[in-house]
């Protein structure tokens, strides 16, 4: 049992609670199973669920702004997301089961920084930015600099993610793929390609501690791009008993091929 539980209603009240010791609770889909299994401890829990300012999905210039508490279900079904960043809707729709999608949030996934997670790969390819606030002020960090390693992010103990800002892919071509071995479980490999008229980006998650990124020019050579993915996987291998590193590396190459080919075949949206 935590020694204390707080559920602030406003951002200023939340910041007062974030004293460097508090554990933030969003949808609870990661943190609660960990605490139930005795992994880590939380003497003070601060829930984000009562703060309206952390909710909502809205257009902001040429980007889409996701409140940190936007759930996977909301993202999967939102018309703004479908129009401006359809691969994020695809990624959201494939996460876990209905319960996980109804409770889990984009802020929770970003804060946890699990390299294989669907959004982590999609947000990396999309060039997203994370908006972080604390009593010391606010800052915006490029998502590919925010995730530092396996479940390690550039987030201090007194900071909270308030939003994730994603550039629109309108006029570009995109594709997202996930590979999983057990329905409802986290994916083994995720891959996302964003091809804009003047540049593009490929991200592949699950075979390295942070997603592999390959920047693409207006034109790109498929074989050279896949070799770059392969080399990155060899340089920073990641694997476990179920999916060893050589297997993940092979799957990374395979799913990189698939997203690049699918994105190239797409009509620009
Ligand atoms: C059965 C199951 C299946 C799953 N399948 C998938 C899958 O297929 N693909 C996938 O990508 N993920 C999967 N997940 C993971 C799921 O997407 C995440 O657990 C969940 O979305 C994390 O968000 P949350 O809101 O539940 O975060 P929480 O569990 O509440 O928090 C996660 C961590 O982030 C911190 N945190 C949360 N919000 C913030 C914030 N705004 N600012 C700062 N810190 C914060 C918390 O303190 C905690 O350390 C699965 C989870 C389960 C339980």
From TrEMBL:
GO terms for molecular function: FAD binding; oxidoreductase activity. It comes from the Bacteria. Residues 1-171 form the FAD-binding PCMH-type domain. It comes from Acrocarpospora pleiomorpha. PROSITE patterns: FAD_PCMH. InterPro entries: CO_DH_flav_C, CO_DH_flav_C_dom_sf, Diverse_Substr_Oxidored, FAD-bd_PCMH, FAD-bd_PCMH-like_sf, FAD-bd_PCMH_sub1, FAD-bd_PCMH_sub2, Mopterin_DH_FAD-bd. Pfam families: FAD_binding_5. Keywords: FAD, Flavoprotein, Oxidoreductase. This is Carbon monoxide dehydrogenase.
């Amino acid at each position: 049992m935590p020694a204390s539980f707080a559920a602030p209603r406003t951002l200023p009240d939340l910041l007062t609670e974030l004293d460097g010791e508090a554990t933030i609770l969003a949808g609870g889909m990661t943190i609660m199973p960990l605490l139930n299994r005795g992994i880590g401890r939380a003497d003070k829990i601060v829930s984000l669920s009562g703060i309206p300012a952390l909710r909502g999905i809205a257009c902001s210039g040429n980007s889409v702004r996701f409140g940190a508490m936007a759930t996977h279900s909301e993202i999967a079904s939102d018309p703004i997301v479908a129009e401006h960043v359809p691969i994020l809707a695809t990624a959201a729709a494939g996460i876990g089961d209905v319960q996980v999608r109804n409770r889990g949030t984009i802020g929770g996934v970003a804060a946890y920084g699990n390299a294989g997670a669907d959004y982590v790969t999609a947000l990396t390819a999309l060039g997203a930015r994370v908006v972080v606030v604390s009593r010391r002020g606010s800052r915006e960090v490029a998502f590919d600099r925010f995730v530092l390693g396996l479940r390690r992010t550039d987030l201090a103990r007194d900071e909270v993610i308030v939003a994730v800002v994603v550039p629109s892919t309108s006029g570009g071509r995109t594709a997202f793929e996930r590979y999983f071995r057990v329905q409802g479980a986290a994916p083994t490999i995720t891959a996302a390609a964003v091809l804009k008229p003047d540049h593009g980006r490929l991200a592949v998650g699950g075979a390295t501690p942070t997603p592999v990124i390959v920047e693409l020019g207006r034109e790109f050579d498929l074989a050279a791009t896949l070799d770059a993915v392969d080399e990155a996987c060899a340089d920073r291998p990641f694997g476990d008993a179920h999916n060893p590193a050589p297997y993940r590396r092979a799957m990374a190459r395979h799913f990189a091929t698939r997203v690049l080919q699918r994105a190239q075949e797409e009509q620009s949206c």
